Each structure stands twice: as structure tokens, then as C-alpha cells.
Amino acid sequence: xxxxxxxLLKTKHINLSHSATQKKPSDKQATLTYTINxxxxxxxxxxxNCSDVVFRPILIGGVIQAYLLYIDGxxxxxxxxxxxxxxxxxxxxxxTNEMMNMLENKIPVTNLRKLSTLPECxxxxxxxxxxxxxxxxxxxYSLCLAKWEKRAIGEPTAEVGIKGPREGFTETINVSTSQLxxxxxxxxxxxxxxxxxxxxxxKVVISYIEGIANHNLIEEVHNRLERIKIDGILDSGYxxxxxxxxxxxxxxxxxxxxxxxxxxxxxxxxxxxxxxxxTPFVIIAPTTFFSLLQSHEDYYQRFPISSAVRWLRYLFLIxxxxxxxxxxxxxxxxxxxxxxxxxxxxxxxxxxxxxxALVEALMMEVTFEALREAGIRLPKQVGAAVSIVGALxxxxxxxxxxxxxxxxxxxxxxxxxxxxxxxxxxxxxGFRILRFPIIFLAGALGLLGVMMGIIAxxxxxxxxxxxxxxxxxxLAPLKGSELKDTLIRAPWWKLKTRPHLTGEYNxxxxxxxxxxxxxxxxx
Amino acid sequence: xxxxxxxxxxxxxxMYLTIMSTAxxxxxxxxxxxxxxxxxxxxxxxxxxxxxxxxxxxxxxxNHPQQSxxxxxxxxxxxYIGKLVGFIYVCFLAYVTGQIIRSYAxxxxxxxxPQTPISVIVISMTVLAAFTVIGGLEVIGRxxxxxxxxxxxxxxxxxxxxxxxxxxSNLLPIMEDGILPSLKGAIxxxxxxxxxxxxxxxxxFLSDQSKGRKWGxxxxxxxxxxxxxxxxxxxxxxxxxxxxxxxxxxxxxRFVNLGDFIENMDxxxxxxxxxxxxxxxxxxxxxxxxxxxxWLNLTDYKPIVWPLGILIVQLSFWSLPNLMVIxxxxxTVSPFLGIIMQTFIPLLLLGISSFRKKVKxxxx
Lengths: 523, 364
What we know:
The complex is a heterodimer.
Chain A lengths: L1 H9 L25 H11 L6 E8 L3 E8 L5 H14 L5 H11 L5 E4 L2 H10 L3 E4 L5 E4 L29 H11 L5 E8 L5 E8 L5 H12 L9 H8 L11 E3 L2 H9 L3 E5 L5 E4 L17 H30 L7 H11 L6 H21 L2 H21 L5 H15 L4 H21 L1 H17 L1 E2 L2 E2 L53
Antiparallel strand pairs in A: 1-2, 2-4, 3-5, 4-5, 6-7, 7-9, 8-10, 9-10, 11-12
Helix pairs in contact in A: 6-9, 10-12, 10-14, 10-15, 12-13, 12-14, 12-15, 15-16
Chain B lengths: L7 H28 L6 H22 L5 H9 L1 H33 L6 H18 L1 H26 L17 H7 L2 H6 L4 H4 L9 H27 L9 H6 L3 E2 L3 E2 L2 H30 L9 H14 L4 H10 L1 H26 L5
Helix pairs in contact in B: 1-6, 1-7, 1-10, 1-12, 2-7, 2-10, 2-15, 3-4, 3-15, 4-5, 4-12, 4-13, 5-12, 5-13, 6-12
């Protein structure tokens, strides 16, 4: 509450033309008056032309004039009828003291807050809590009866898996925090709330585990969030872009997930999660390059398989960036590198193609990207059409017409699949974009260009930090003990220590000697 | 000036790549000219220069902890002579950077992209290096840490693939004409070992000062080992024909043929050369930029990186019009310039500095 008021005070100097409260800027600090008509007048002027705001006049005990203010659809009307209006109208209170007494003691509402300033009252109404104003007192009662239609908890659609929990976050932040709390029951799980956005007043919760997360990190997250002054936050993507370290980088420096288990595993490793109301995507900082290449399922299935899958992923990451450019470079500059038999069959299929390899590759890659984008945006019913057209036109017809060579189609297809192997979409798309400049470099300078591109990417990755953590750690700078969860996925009984992010650090996460063994069994 | 810190392990990797990347390709050929089949002995003699240089440099920085090389010059030789020596070093470093870029570009031109204008190759590399230099020492350290395993294991794999082609009898006769040819052959490789002098610029930025010496030594041994292996492999494969080729290791790798499918390994060598040269150029570029900053007592070296880049591109063409002159220069000028600048002058400085240290308590 205090923080909310502070935020309001801080944001005072910003001018937003559409703000309703801006009509009476001097009223920011204004308090309610003793006469109800003045108060109601004020609220009516603020909520002019807001047909969804309901002003319900009532007479408490038939004597005291009062108003119930709420937004239609955001407040639980049945509860309000039964628990508020009914006792109020039937009460025997004759003066203000009796009435206050009765309100505070006899109204069966779990959370009843007394508000005295007008901005607080407006906040209360906006969040859906009905506001009760009575004649003769300069206090408004905020009744915690907010309720609106929300999506049920469902399976996360962007991060599916075979094994592991099947529930995802929803758009409602209270549900999300409760999902975290249900996994981590310790009171050391902290949730600090903030409100960001001048008009949307979006609730943002900073979540971390005290004693594991570094204090400086928490403070840094606070500082970066508090300097955001914007009209609205519609998704955690806004916040991500406003708090990251290197705004021009194509790589995401903050992990975004819709799975409570992923958030909890990161919290347990000492990271900080930022939950944003209105979106199922929770963002986690700091994040490293390699944690963006890991999937939640790596930790749920057997470790040799997870390790193998990780290596497969690294291999295909390289393929997704380099394959088309290597193809172009080799076909344009270095035929001698290809074994003769292979060269002959490639040359035979390229014979009829009228374009140089560079043009061919660019054409195909751009088309593939277009297909992918179209596939995402189109309504489900049309989506099938796109894939059919794409497969037929690009795969079959283009090759038969001699516009594109069959090897090129294979290259593009493999590259496409490779880029989908990266578990984090934001990371995959970053690499997908980098493919194009490297294709150009390959077309211009051959392998030298490809190498230049690789060097440039690695230099860039070495430069980035995410909240003070080098992006390429634990590989560069090398932290030997953390490679057990990077190069491979060591078995759980080997993952004894948490990764070291910055500063002071709570090292051990399990007791030693957890390796299972028949002799250690209960018998 | 430089806020980043690197670990001594990173320093070792930086130095390994800086020295090995260019040495592995060109040095065997030059050495073989003098040492013939004894070329594998030359790196051992040459490594002595490396050890001496490292000891000098470590001692010097122990006498003047946390001081830049230019401050050491001024403190030992007095402000005027110290500034002059510093100026000579700045020029030397810039000149060597230009020379390295040139030899990189020449390699790419001869074996790889003969039609491409040399300026494109030189400028593209300089631009890439400039960005890295602006990133600072930490970035160079991390980049080296990623490139080191790639470089090391690729060489290792190529050597394994070459095993069936080795002809061990090429080694004989050992020391046919005594020790002299192999000593003569060591004159040129010592320039590479002398490059350990660069450690003096990195030492103040180590996060673990005490391990600097240890990792320096390990790096020299690693370089020596790689040198030795490369020379031996080249000798075993090419025999007496080494002297005729400029890039014998590249020539040797062309012999790789496994099941008629794994052949033509030279693109990998070229890729490694580009990676290694990149690190080498970046390190020299960085040291030059940092050196100018320290010499002029600037607060930040970053503003001079781009202007210096233009100068370096110029320097790579300035005194070296063609490959003939470059080879001539490499064999006559470089060894002496190298040993004077990298070993002899630091030794002189160390002498003065130790003398002053001893004399100091007597001063009234």
C-alpha cells in the first residue's frame, strides 16, 4: 500500500493527456470530504461518460445517505447484494458512529480497507473493489469483492512437453502467485508488488527466495522496474525490453516462460521472477545463453538422455545459423571442398537453376520465414491451407519448374527444423534473424565471410551481460563446477551446488551422498 | 583505463592463441630452411627465449606491482627517457599489428580468395578487431576461452587423422651437421616465443595475480608442445620438401584422406587460421590502443581505437609492398627487432629497476 502511494507520488510530474484524474491535477493529494454529495459529485465528474461505472444510492437504516460505487463486471454483484446491501439496509444504525461500528464489525467481508484520499478510492474502484461512501464521514470503505471472468488454468501452449507438470500460468496474477506458492511452501518465498503503467496500473510482482537470491540482484531488479514510466504495460515483453542490459542485441537477456515449474526451479537457483498481471508469461532474470537452450524436460527425464538431447540441440543450433551460409559459400567459392561424388550430384540438380546460390538461398529462406509467420498468425481453419500451399509450391513445384534446386530445399528444411529445436522461442528467432547477414557474408567472401560472422556473433555474446552475469557463463568465463549442468545434464544426485550468479551465494542445494545404492535402501 | 579483470587461465589461453595461431602455419617452413630435418629441435632452443622473457616480465611487474609498462619505463629510466622508450614501444606495437594483419591477409589471398582485393580482407578484419577491442579485455578473454578448445582440438584431430601417413624415418639423421643448424633455425621462432612479453600489459588486470607466473609457464609449455608436434608432423609427412613451401602445415593436412570421404581438410585449417589470427590481431591491437592510452595518460583508450585502426590498415601496406619483401623482412628484420624489443630492453629495464631497488635503502 505504501509503495503504491509512493509510486503515485513519483509519477506525478508525468503528463498523460488521456488520464482521467488529470482533470483536477491539484486533487492528487485530495481527501474525501464529510458531505457525501460533494464526494459523489467529484466521482461523477471523474467517471463522466463511463457507462460501466455504477453509482448505487442506498439509505443505511433508512437514515444515512450512502453510495456504493463499482464497475459493472469487475465486482461480485451477488456477494455485494447479499453481504453488503442486505445488512446495511436492514441495519438499525441511527448515527454515523453506530454505522461505522456496524460496518467494521458486522459486514462479512474478508478484506475491508479504509481509504481517505481520492486517488486511493479511484484505485480501489478501478481494481474492481466496490467503494462504499457514507454521509458524515470522510472515509471510504473498499470492499474486497473484485471478481471478473478469467481463463481457467490450462496446459501451457508455447512450452509443451511429454513429462512434467501440465499446468501453465494464466492472465490473472493472483492465480499465478498462488501457483508458485503451492509449489514452494516456505515463507522465504517473497512476493513484492509494484504497480507500473500510468493508465493500466498493472500489478507487477517481484518474486524471489530470501536467503538464496542475492540482495543486490533484488535491489537491481527493483531499481530497474521503478524507473519505468510508461502509459501502459500489456505484456511482460514491455518490461523485458525496458529493463534488459543490451537493448540492441538480437538475443533475449531475460527468460520468459509460462510454466510454474520452470519459474520455481529458477527461483530455487537464486534468480528473480517478475510476474505481470494480464499475461501468462513470467520473466526471469538473470539469464544466460545456455539456460535459454535448456528445456524443463531435461530435468525430468533420465540424465543420459537429457545430456544427449542437449548435445543434439547444440549441434542443431549451429546448423540453424550456419547451414545455408555454408552451402552458399561452398557452392560459390569452394567446390574443391566437397567430395567429388557429392559435388557431381549437387551440380547435376543445380544445372537448370537460373539463379546464383546466394539468390536461391535468400529466396528460399525468406519464403520459409514468411510461411512460418503466416502459419502463426492465421486462424486455425486457414492454417492448414498455408502448409499445403507451402509444401506443394515450395517443395515440389519450385523444384520441378527448375527455379530452385532440390538440395537447397533440403538445406532450408533442415535449417527450419533446426531453429525449432531451440526450446526458447525468443532465442530461436534471434538466431533465425542472424542467418541472413551471414548468408550475405558467405555470398560475398565465402568461408571467410562465414568465419567473420561467427566471430562477430561470439564477440557479441561475450560482450553481453544479463543483470551482471556474463551471458556465456559458465563457459566463458569458465566455471568448471557449473559445466555439469551445461555441457551435460549431470544426474540429480550430482547437482549438489547451485549455479553462482553474482556476489554472495548460497552454495549447497542438497545434502551430500544422495547417490542411490541398494545398500542405502531402507532394509 | 581498463576496468575488466581476467583470470590467469584466460590470460594463458589468450597468449596461446596469440602465439600459436600464426606460428603453426608459417614457422615450420622458415625453420626448415636452416635446420633441415632438425627443425623439431629449433622450438626447444627458441622456447628458452620465451622462458627468459616471461621471467623478466614477471620480475619486472613484481618490482612494480599494478603499474603499466609505461609507468615502469618512466620509473626506471626517468621521465624523459622513459617517455621516449614508451614512444618506441607504441610505434613497435602498432607496426607489428599492421604486419600481422598483412600476413593474415596474404595467407587468405594466396590459398583462398585470390580474386578478392586485399583491402577488403584487411579492413574487414580490422573492423571486427576494433569492435572487440572496444569491448575490452574481458571480452578478449572470453572470446579466447571459446576459441581455444576449438583451435586446440581441431589441430589434435587433424594430427590423429594424419597418423597413417607418417613416415618416421624422415627424422633421420639427427643432428647431421651438429647443433648449429637447429640453433640457426631457432632464430625466427624465438620471435613468437618473445611475444610472451605482452603478458606485461595483461598482468595488472589479472584477478588472481599470484597464479600469473604458473599459467604463463604452462602456456609456454603448451606452445612448445604444439610447436614440436606440428614441426614433427610436418617433417614426418613432407620430409625434405618442407623448406620449399610457405605453409607446410597446410600442405601436410592435404594428405588427410579417410575412406575417400574425409579429405580436403584445408578449409578447417583456414578457419582455424582466421580464428587464431583474429585473436592475435585483437590482442596486439588492444595492447597498442591501451599502450597509447597509458603512454599519454588518457583516462580511456576507447576513443583512439578507431583512428588507430586506420593507422594499422595503413601500416599493413606501408613498408611491405609485396610478398617477397615480407618474407625478406620476416627473415632479416623481425628476429632482431623482436628480441631487442621483447626481451633485451625489458631485461635492461629489469636490471635498472633491481639496481635502484637495491640502492634505495642506502640513500640518505
